[in-house]
Specification:
single chain, about 5% strand, 2 domains, mainly alpha, about 300 residues, about 45% helix
Length: about 300
């Protein structure tokens, strides 16, 4: 198993079942277009009239085929990056892609962002899994639900995503992946609905305008440092395992309070603040004592031993 694959699995990304959410997003009863996108596997025919399509905070004039393509790009990258963070995590990733596409200095579309080289870890170049005896061995060891072993499933999904990046870059329609586990099947269905709702008229942007994100745990597992653009002052949201940032060129600031940047889900209580204050003071005293001891050792170490 590659180091990157081990890192994905080590933190549960794509290798562990997604915890059950309280309520998964679904299409409105009267929204036939949403249901068609989330339920159908076949894309609309090319051509036809262009209509106004809203994605994120932007409006595009697209044919039905083009609109399907852009939404598939959003759903795929959100699912590949954050399906273990639930619908909120996937929504945040998709909104950040839509926000980058809406950049007034470099306007583009979601598929252009997703297909850009070196931008998203699941889209990195990878070889397709080998078939044959090894493939048959894994196929013979599915569990009672028909699921493949998690590590084999994620390997195949990442290979699929890599192949779809090339399809998107060439202007083609990305294909939905084959889901090898029941959890992946469910979260892909959720990702499709979430992608449809990445529209400022249907949902709000959980990233507050972010265009960049990364997963600290994955970076650590891969032996990498935080990206240069991960400026705490540009941090806008922490959703699941991902941190979201404004573009380095943005004049705005993230504005998250310190407790949020520390990874807390809520401000510390008065008791916690007091305990942390005492612990911090004790730590500083211990550091001062260590420095004093080192200084005294250095001083007396230089004094003559006899007169």
């Amino acid at each position: 198993m590659t180091r990157a694959l081990a890192a994905f699995c080590a933190i549960g990304l794509a290798c562990a079942a997604l915890p059950a959410a309280a309520a998964e997003p679904s299409c409105e009863t009267a929204d036939a277009e949403c249901r068609a996108f989330s339920d159908a596997s076949k894309a609309p025919a090319r051509g036809g009239p262009k209509t106004l399509v809203f994605i994120g905070s932007s409006a595009y004039r697209l044919t039905a085929w083009e609109a399907e393509r852009e939404r598939r790009c959003l759903a795929l990258i959100g699912w590949a990056e954050a399906r273990n963070d639930g619908s909120d995590g996937m929504s945040a990733v998709m909104w950040s892609v839509a926000n980058r596409a809406a950049d007034v200095l470099r306007p583009s579309a979601p598929c252009d962002i997703v297909a850009a080289k070196g931008q998203y870890e699941p889209m990195a170049k990878r070889a397709a899994p080998k078939k044959g005896a090894k493939h048959a061995k894994h196929a013979a060891h599915v569990d009672s639900d028909g699921d493949l072993p998690a590590k084999e499933a994620v390997k195949r999904i990442l290979a699929h995503m890599s192949a779809q990046r090339r399809v998107i870059a060439q202007g083609g329609m990305p294909e939905w992946p084959k889901t090898w586990t029941s959890s992946d099947k469910r979260t892909l269905r959720v990702a499709k609905v979430v992608a449809w709702r990445v529209d400022s008229e249907l949902s709000s942007d959980p990233t507050r305008g972010a265009t960049m994100f990364y997963a600290p745990d994955i970076q650590t597992k891969l032996g990498r440092k935080a990206p240069d653009w991960a400026d705490p002052k540009k941090l806008t949201a922490i959703v699941g395992g991902h941190r979201f940032y404004l573009s380095p060129s943005s004049k705005g600031v993230g504005g998250l309070p310190q407790w949020a940047m520390d990874g807390r889900s809520a401000p510390p209580t008065l008791v916690e603040s007091a305990e942390e204050g005492v612990a911090g003071a004790a730590g500083r005293l211990a550091s001062l004592a260590s420095d004093l001891s080192a200084s005294l050792h250095g001083l007396f170490g230089r004094l003559p031993t006899s007169f």
